[in-house]
Write a sequence for this structure.
C-alpha cells in the first residue's frame, strides 16, 4: 500500500514510517502539510496518515483542501494527541474510525487502517 | 410779630449774634466811661427790656449797676440759646434723611445738609422756591400731594422718583406734614440703592421660579422653607405646604446618609452626589443633588440650599449609549471572528492553488504554459499579501499589535530598505535615491520591524504607482532634545499622484484612489490604512502631498528615544582600550565547527588573536598552560560542558574572566552561569557588537574587579557547601523577608533608568547583604549608593547576582523545597523504539539523537516565542513535543505538556504560572536528554 504520512514531530514521523515500512508498505514522509499536499497530488496514495495540529496548515485544513480540489476520495487517518473535548472544536469530519490517539498503539492503527481501506 | 421757633433758626441765630456783639461793645464802652454815659445805658437797657419783654417794665430808676447785671443776664441767655440752636442745626445736618421747611408760598426757610445732597444742589437752597429743583412732571406730582395734604391735613408718605443731578434717577420716600398754618415740613429719604437691590432680588426670585432644576431652602433639620415651581412639580405637590423634609423624599441604601451629609457639609461646605427621589405618587427618580450651607442672618441656625436635577433622561441616554457601544463592540467581535474564519476559508483554496502550481511548475511545460504558471503564482502570492493585510489590520484594530522598544541603527535600517528595493526599481528602470541625515543619532530606541513595515509599504506603493522617473527616500532630524529625537521620513515618487479630493480619504481602510486602481495596480487598499495605524500606535503622524500625474510625497514623523551608541567595531573605539584588546589573548571553547569558523573569521576581521579548543577538558588544559586574558565558553559541549569546566578553572584558582556563550537565553540559565563563576554571557547566535563590547570591557577591567566578582561567587558557593560560617539566623530571616522587594525595586530602577530608585534600593540592599556577611558584594552596592558611576552592564550583574544569592539562600533554608526538586525525576522507557529497532541498524541511535536535537530546537523556539509573548505558538510547540514524551512514556513531561498547552492556548494559567512551569519543563526536558542517553546505552541502542 502507498501511504503518505504527515507529522511535524519528526520522532513520531520516523517511528510511524519505520513501523509501516516493516509492515511492507511504501511510505512517503512529510513534516509539513503543504509538501504533503504536493506529494498526495503527485503520488495518489492509498492512504494519508496525518497529524492534526501542525503549524501553518493543520490536518483538517489539508483534508478540506483535498476535498476542495475534488480529491475527496483520498482516504485519511488522523493521528493526534488532542484531547477529545478539543477535537470536537476542530470540525465535524472526525469519526470513530478516522482518528487515532497518540501515543500510537500499532494494533489499533492496523484496525483503523483496515476499516478505512475497506 | 417776629417769627421765632425753628422756622428761621439760622436767621435768628445770626441776628442774636449781632445783638450780642453790639451789647458787648456797648457794655465795654459804658464801663470805660462810666460817668458820662449813664443816660445812654439807661436808654439801652430800656431798649433791651422792650425787645425781650413786652411787660410794662421800665428801665427808669434802675441803677447803673442793675442795668449792667440785666444786660449781662440777657447776653448770657442769648449765648446759651445760640449754642443750643447750633446743636440743633448740627443734629439736623447729621441726619441721613433730608429735612426742609417751606412756607405756604413755597419758599424754603430751612433745610439740612442731607436734603441738599439728595436733591443734588451745590449751594444753599434757603429762600429759593422748592419748584426750582424739580422737573415739570415732578413739580406737578408734588403739587398734587400738597393739595391732598391740605385736604386731609395729615401726614403724607409716598415713594417718589425724580431726576436729580446728571439726570440720575433718584427714588425717595417723601414725607410731608403741616407744622402750622403756613409751614410745611418735608423729609426725604434716599432709597435708590435699596430700590436697585429690590429689583435684583425680584429678578433672582423669578429666575429661581423659572429654573427647571429643583431649588429649595431648608432649615437646619432639612425641613423646607422654600421650594421653587420645579421642585413642587418634581415632588408632585401644588400648594406651598412646606412641612416636607428633604430626607423623607430621598431613598438611599446608605443608612448613614444624614451623617454623611452633615460631615461633608461641615468639612467641605457642600455635598454632591447621586440619589433617588421618591415622588408623592411613589415613583423613584434618579437625581443629581447638590447641597450647600446658606447663611441666615436673622437666626443663628444653619440653612441648607438644595439643588436637584432630574437625571432620569440623562441616565436613559447613557444606557442607550452603553447599549450602542456594546452592540458596536459585539459587531466588531463578529467582524473579527468573521475575518478569522474567512482567512481559513481563503487559505483552503489558496493551499490548493499554490500546491498545484508548484507541482505544475515541476512538469514539462512550454513557454506559454510557463507564463500561465508564473501568473498563477504571482496572483496567489498577491492574494496571500491581501490576506495578511486583512489579518494585520484586524490585529491592529483589536489592539493586539504590540510595539517593541529596542535599540537599533537607523542607518542600517535605511541600507536594508535600499537593498530590498534596488532590484525592483532597476527592473522598472526607475531611479532610486536614499538620503540620510548625518545629524541623525546612530542608535535610536523603537520598533525597527514596524518602522521597516511602514517604509517598505510606502516604497512598494511608490514603485507600484510610478512608471517613469523614480523614487527618493529621505530621513531628516527635525528635533533633537532631552534625549529624544524626532525623525521625518519622506518617500517621494514621480508617479501617477493622487487627486486633491481623494487626499482626505487615502488613509482610510478599503479605499483606493479610484475604483479601478485595484484592477490596474493591485493591492487591497489596506496598505496605507495599516501604515497610518502603525504610525499612530507609535505616537507618530503621517501626511501626504500630491499632484495628480506629477507624483506624491508621503511624510512620516516619528519620535524615538536616543539610545546609547551601539559600538561600531574598530572605528570609534577608544584607541587605548582597543590596544589592550589587541594584545589580549582570547580562548574559545566551542565544539561546533561552523561556529568555530564564524568566530575565527570575526576575530580576524577585528585583528584579534583567538585560540579555539573543542571541549571543556581541552579548555581547562589550555587555561592552565596559556596565559589567557579572556575565555569564551560554550555551555553545551561534548566530553565536558562549559559549566563543569568553569567550576574546575575556578577551583584551580584561576581568575581569568569567563564569558558564557549560550543559546539558552532563559534568564535562569544566565543566572546559573554567573553563579558558578562566569563573569558574563553572550547569546548565540552572537551579535558582533555585543561580543566586541564585552571583549573590550573585559580586556580593560582591572584584575581586582574580576577578583571581586569571583570572590563573591566563591563565597556564595562556600556558604552553600557550608564552608563559611553561617550568618545569624535572625539576619537571614530579615534578608529573606526584605530582599525580594528590594531586588524588585532595584530591577525596576534599572528598567526605568531611575537613578534615585537605584540609589535608594542600592543603599538598602547594601545593608542587607552586609548583614548576611556578603561584605564584598555589599561593597558594590555601596559604590552604587555613593553615586560611583557603574557601567550599565554592571547593574545587570548586580541584579542577577542578588537574585541568585536570594534564591540559593532561600533554598538553603527551605530544604524541603530542594528535596521536592529532586523528587521530580524524569523517567522514560524506550520500549516503543526498541520494538521497531533491529540489531545494529542504528534506528535506536537515530531516534535518540532525533529526540534530543528536535527537543533542543523546540526549546529554543519556545524561548523565542515566550520573549515575543506569542503564547499560542508556545502552546503549539509544546503540543508537538507532547507526542515525543508520550511515545517515550515520559509521564511527568507528558502531563506537564498537557497542562502547559492548555495554559498557553486556553488561558487556564496566568502568565506567571506559565513562565514558572516552563522553567520546570525546560529543566526536566534537559534532564530527559541524560536519561534517554543512559537508557539507550543500557538497552544497547547506542
Amino acid at each position: 500500500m502507498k501511504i503518505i504520512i504527515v507529522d511535524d514531530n519528526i520522532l513520531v514521523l520516523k517511528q510511524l514510517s519505520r513501523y509501516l515500512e516493516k509492515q511492507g508498505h511504501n511510505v512517503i514522509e512529510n513534516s509539513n502539510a503543504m509538501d504533503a499536499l504536493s506529494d498526495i497530488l503527485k503520488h495518489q496514495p492509498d492512504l494519508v496518515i496525518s497529524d492534526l495540529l501542525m503549524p501553518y496548515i493543520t490536518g483538517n485544513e489539508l483534508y478540506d483542501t483535498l476535498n476542495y480540489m475534488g480529491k475527496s476520495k483520498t482516504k485519511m487517518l488522523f493521528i493526534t494527541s488532542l484531547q477529545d473535548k478539543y477535537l470536537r472544536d476542530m470540525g465535524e469530519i472526525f469519526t470513530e474510525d478516522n482518528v487515532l490517539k497518540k501515543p500510537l498503539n500499532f494494533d489499533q492503527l492496523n484496525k483503523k487502517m483496515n476499516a478505512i481501506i475497506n | 410779630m417776629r417769627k421765632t421757633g425753628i422756622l428761621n433758626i439760622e436767621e435768628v441765630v445770626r441776628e442774636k449774634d449781632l445783638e450780642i456783639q453790639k451789647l458787648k461793645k456797648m457794655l465795654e464802652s459804658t464801663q470805660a466811661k462810666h460817668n458820662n454815659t449813664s443816660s445812654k445805658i439807661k436808654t439801652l437797657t430800656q431798649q433791651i427790656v422792650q425787645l425781650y419783654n413786652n411787660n410794662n417794665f421800665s428801665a427808669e430808676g434802675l441803677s447803673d449797676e442793675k442795668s449792667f447785671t440785666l444786660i449781662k443776664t440777657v447776653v448770657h441767655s442769648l449765648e446759651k440759646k445760640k449754642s443750643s440752636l447750633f446743636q440743633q442745626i448740627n443734629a439736623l445736618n447729621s441726619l441721613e434723611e433730608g429735612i426742609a421747611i417751606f412756607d405756604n408760598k413755597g419758599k424754603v426757610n430751612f433745610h439740612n445738609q442731607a436734603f441738599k445732597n439728595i436733591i443734588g444742589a451745590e449751594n444753599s437752597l434757603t429762600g429759593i422756591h422748592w419748584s426750582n429743583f424739580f422737573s415739570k412732571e415732578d413739580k406737578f406730582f408734588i403739587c398734587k400731594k400738597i393739595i391732598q395734604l391740605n385736604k386731609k391735613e395729615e401726614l403724607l408718605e409716598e415713594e417718589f422718583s425724580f431726576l436729580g443731578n446728571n439726570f440720575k434717577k433718584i427714588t425717595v420716600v417723601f414725607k410731608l406734614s403741616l407744622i402750622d398754618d403756613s409751614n410745611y415740613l418735608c423729609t426725604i429719604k434716599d432709597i435708590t440703592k435699596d430700590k436697585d437691590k429690590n429689583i435684583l432680588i425680584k429678578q433672582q426670585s423669578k429666575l429661581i421660579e423659572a429654573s427647571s432644576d429643583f431649588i429649595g431652602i431648608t432649615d437646619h433639620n432639612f425641613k423646607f422653607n422654600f421650594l421653587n415651581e420645579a421642585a413642587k412639580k418634581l415632588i408632585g405637590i401644588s400648594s406651598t405646604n412646606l412641612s416636607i423634609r428633604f430626607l423623607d423624599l430621598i431613598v438611599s441604601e446608605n443608612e448613614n446618609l444624614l451623617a454623611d451629609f452633615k460631615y461633608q457639609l461641615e468639612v467641605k461646605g457642600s455635598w454632591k452626589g447621586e440619589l433617588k427621589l421618591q415622588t408623592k405618587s411613589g415613583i423613584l427618580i434618579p437625581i443629581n443633588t447638590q447641597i450647600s450651607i446658606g447663611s441666615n442672618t436673622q437666626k443663628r441656625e444653619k440653612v441648607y440650599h438644595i439643588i436637584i436635577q432630574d437625571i432620569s433622561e440623562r441616565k436613559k441616554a447613557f444606557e442607550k449609549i452603553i447599549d450602542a457601544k456594546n452592540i458596536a463592540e459585539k459587531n466588531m467581535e463578529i467582524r473579527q471572528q468573521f475575518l478569522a474564519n474567512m482567512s481559513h476559508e481563503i487559505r483552503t483554496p489558496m493551499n490548493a492553488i499554490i500546491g498545484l502550481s508548484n507541482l505544475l511548475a515541476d512538469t514539462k511545460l512550454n513557454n506559454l504554459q510557463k507564463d500561465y504558471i508564473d501568473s498563477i503564482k504571482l496572483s496567489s502570492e498577491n492574494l496571500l499579501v491581501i490576506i495578511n493585510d486583512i489579518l494585520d489590520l484586524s490585529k491592529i484594530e483589536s489592539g493586539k499589535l504590540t510595539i517593541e522598544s529596542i535599540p537599533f541603527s537607523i542607518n542600517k535600517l535605511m541600507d536594508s530598505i535600499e537593498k530590498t528595493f534596488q532590484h525592483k526599481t532597476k527592473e522598472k528602470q526607475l531611479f532610486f535615491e536614499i538620503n540620510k541625515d548625518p545629524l541623525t543619532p546612530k542608535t535610536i530606541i523603537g520598533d525597527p520591524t514596524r518602522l521597516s513595515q511602514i517604509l517598505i509599504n510606502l516604497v512598494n506603493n511608490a514603485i507600484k504607482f510610478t512608471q517613469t522617473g523614480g523614487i527618493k527616500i529621505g530621513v531628516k532630524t527635525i528635533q533633537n532634545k532631552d534625549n529624544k529625537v524626532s525623525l521625518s521620513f519622506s518617500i517621494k515618487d514621480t508617479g501617477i499622484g493622487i487627486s486633491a479630493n481623494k487626499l482626505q480619504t487615502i488613509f482610510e481602510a478599503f479605499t483606493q484612489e479610484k475604483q479601478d486602481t485595484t484592477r490596474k495596480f493591485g493591492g487591497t487598499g489596506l496598505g496605507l490604512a495599516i501604515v497610518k495605524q502603525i504610525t499612530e500606535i507609535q505616537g507618530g503622524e503621517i501626511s501626504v502631498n500630491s499632484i495628480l500625474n506629477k507624483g506624491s510625497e508621503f511624510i512620516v514623523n516619528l519620535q524615538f528615544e536616543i539610545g546609547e551608541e551601539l559600538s561600531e567595531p574598530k572605528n570609534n573605539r577608544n584607541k587605548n582600550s582597543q590596544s589592550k584588546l589587541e594584545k589580549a589573548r582570547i580562548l574559545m571553547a566551542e565544539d561546533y565547527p561552523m561556529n568555530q569558523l564564524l568566530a575565527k573569521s570575526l576575530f580576524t576581521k577585528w585583528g584579534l588573536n583567538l585560540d579555539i579548543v573543542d571541549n571543556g577538558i581541552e579548555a581547562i588544559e589550555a587555561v592552565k598552560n596559556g596565559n589567557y586574558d579572556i575565555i569564551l565558553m560554550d555551555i553545551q559541549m561534548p566530553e565536558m560542558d562549559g559549566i563543569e569546566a568553569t567550576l574546575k578553572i575556578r577551583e584551580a584558582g584561576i581568575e581569568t574572566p569567563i564569558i558564557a556563550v549560550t543559546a539558552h537565553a532563559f534568564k535562569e540559565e544566565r543566572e546559573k552561569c554567573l553563579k558558578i563563576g562566569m563573569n558574563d554571557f553572550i547569546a548565540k547566535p552572537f551579535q558582533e557588537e555585543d561580543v566586541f563590547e564585552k571583549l573590550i570591557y573585559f580586556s580593560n577591567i582591572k584584575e581586582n574587579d574580576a577578583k571581586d566578582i569571583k570572590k563573591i561567587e566563591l563565597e556564595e558557593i562556600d556558604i552553600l557547601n557550608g564552608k563559611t560560617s553561617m550568618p545569624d539566623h535572625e539576619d537571614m530571616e530579615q534578608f529573606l523577608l526584605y530582599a525580594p522587594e528590594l531586588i524588585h525595586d532595584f530591577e525596576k530602577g534599572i528598567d526605568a533608568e531611575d537613578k534615585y530608585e537605584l540609589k535608594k534600593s542600592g543603599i538598602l540592599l547594601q545593608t542587607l547583604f552586609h548583614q548576611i556577611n556578603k561584605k564584598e558584594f555589599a561593597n558594590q552596592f555601596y559604590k552604587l549608593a555613593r553615586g560611583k558611576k557603574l557601567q550599565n552592564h554592571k547593574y545587570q550583574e548586580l541584579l542577577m547576582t542578588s537574585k541568585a544569592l536570594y534564591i540559593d539562600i532561600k533554598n538553603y533554608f527551605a530544604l524541603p523545597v530542594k528535596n521536592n526538586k529532586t523528587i521530580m525525576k524524569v523517567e522514560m522507557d524506550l520500549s516503543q523504539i526498541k520494538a521497531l529497532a533491529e540489531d545494529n541498524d542504528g534506528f535506536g541511535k537515530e531516534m535518540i539523537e532525533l529526540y534530543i536535537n528536535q527537543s533542543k530546537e523546540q526549546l529554543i523556539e519556545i524561548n523565542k516565542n515566550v520573549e515575543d509573548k506569542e503564547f499560542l505558538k508556545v502552546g503549539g510547540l509544546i503540543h508537538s513535543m507532547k507526542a515525543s514524551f508520550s511515545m517515550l512514556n515520559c509521564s511527568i513531561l507528558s502531563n506537564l505538556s498537557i497542562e502547559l498547552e492548555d495554559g498557553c492556548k486556553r488561558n487556564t494559567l496566568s502568565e506567571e504560572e506559565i513562565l514558572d512551569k516552563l522553567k520546570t519543563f525546560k529543566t526536566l526536558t534537559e534532564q530527559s536528554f541524560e536519561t534517554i542517553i543512559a537508557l539507550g546505552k543500557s538497552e544497547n541502542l547506542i
Q: What stands out?
A: Residues 830 and 888 of chain B are 6 Å apart (CA to CA). The first helix of chain B runs from residue 9 to 32. The two ends of chain B are 159 Å apart (CA to CA). Chain B touches chain A through 32 residues (CB under 8 Å).
